[in-house]
Amino acid sequence: MAQLWGGRFTKETDQLVYAFNASINFDKRLINEDIEGSIAHVTMLAKQSILTNDERDAIIKCLNEILADVNNGKLEITEKYEDIHSFVEANLIDRIGDTGKKLHTGRSRNDQVALDMRLYTRKQVKLTQELLKELLTTINSVMKANIDTYMPGFTHLQKAQPITLAHHFGAYFEMFKRDYLRLSDIYERMNYCPLGAGALAGTTYPLDREYTASLLDFKGATANSIDSVSDRDYLIEYLSALSMIMMHLSRFSEEIIIWNSNEYRFVEIDDTYSTGSSIMPQKKNPDIAELIRGKVGRVYGALTSLLTTMKGIPLAYNKDMQEDKEMSFDAFDTVNGCIKLFDGMMKTMKFNKEVMAKSAMCGFTNATDAADYLVKKGMPFRDAHSVIGRLVLYCIDVNKSIDELSIDELKEICPMFDEDVYNEISLETCVEKRLTKGSPSSQAMNEEISGNDIFLKSI
């Protein structure tokens, strides 16, 4: 097939070169955006009297027919076309003749592909936000149901202080909330239209770029025609945000995998989100959580790949930039799929509250509160810290928790202990007396959840 750019050439492109150069196998997913942009472009051309209204109407009618034929399977996007842009234009010309050749007036493939990718990415940003909102809603629901579900908080994967499941999940709510807001920032920065920039220097045709931008629901037209066709910052930003989302999902998945183990038994993943073993009949594996954790590298790879591609490109457009698509599309699909699957796993997961509470009681998570008890009695904190350290050693020797010791045993370590210590170091007291903003007490958590509700209603 003759190429749209073939007039300058006297020889056919080598087939290996053609295949290496072509992008149709992956940019065919931009069919909707390519036609959407083309319709806006010819609408503007008619407004500026560059095309007649009849030419505009004929082109738009045929573009819509092409899209409908693709969607219903009557027209196949094949490798005979170099890219999605040549597919659309070639089929347009086949159907309506010379009028179809006027579609590309005042436009280059450089600003065309820049527009298509920006339109597609903009939709993906909104899709990711919708999925994050659903996940945030699920997390907030778990928080509401588990304000008094006691569990150990960890540092260094060692039991540290007693918290609640609501408090623990609240940390992930904040992570995904930042992810959501980060995407909003990216959307605002990217929401400018590059169409009309031409190859790099604009055009002599009297285009109305602001009108085209308004037709496509952009905030405005891009300011510099060179930057318009060579900018992929918005895509790098989105891939960076997706990488952070995957990092957060991976951290959460790691904890779910640990909590689901026989040693912890904090949670039970539903059968619909688990798999078995081909040889060990007793196994119930957290494969979804493991795969989410494992797919992070694909998204990091897309970000690193595009950063590497862009680092050495002089202005303006270079063919290297065609490499912005394949791994980006994979990253979009990967992250949005992982968010949806993780949300489904969260919605169906069961929490073993008694096991969590027992774990908190057996791990000296109330040791800091025991030290604070002695401080309230008048002992300097550093001395109290030393006393409780000796107390923990004693507990390990006799295989008891602090609250299981008799008052005589406590007084033998330090005579300042009294009967009221048992109330001071109970799980409930340890949690409920922490009233500062962001703490695990029911009062602080209710305030936090109320803020979550307000945020979710605002987005």
Describe the protein.
With 459 residues, the chain is mainly alpha-helical. The protein is 61% helix and 5% strand. It is built from 20 helices and six strands. The protein has a two-stranded antiparallel sheet. Strands 3-4 form a two-stranded parallel sheet. Strands 5-6 form a two-stranded antiparallel sheet. The longest helix is centred in the first third of the chain and has 37 residues.
Low-confidence stretches: none
Q: Biggest β-sheet, characterized?
A: 2 strands, antiparallel
Strand order of the largest sheet: 1-2
Q: First CA to last CA: what distance?
A: 49 Å
Strand content: under 5%
Report the count of strand segments.
6
What order do the helices and strands follow? HHHHHHEEHEHEHHEHHHEHHHHHHH
Helical residue percent band: 55-70%
Oligomeric state of this protein: single chain
Number of helices: 20
Shape: elongated
Instruction: Output mean pLDDT.
Output: 94
**Sheet/helix structural class:** mainly alpha
Spatial extent as radius of gyration: 31 Å
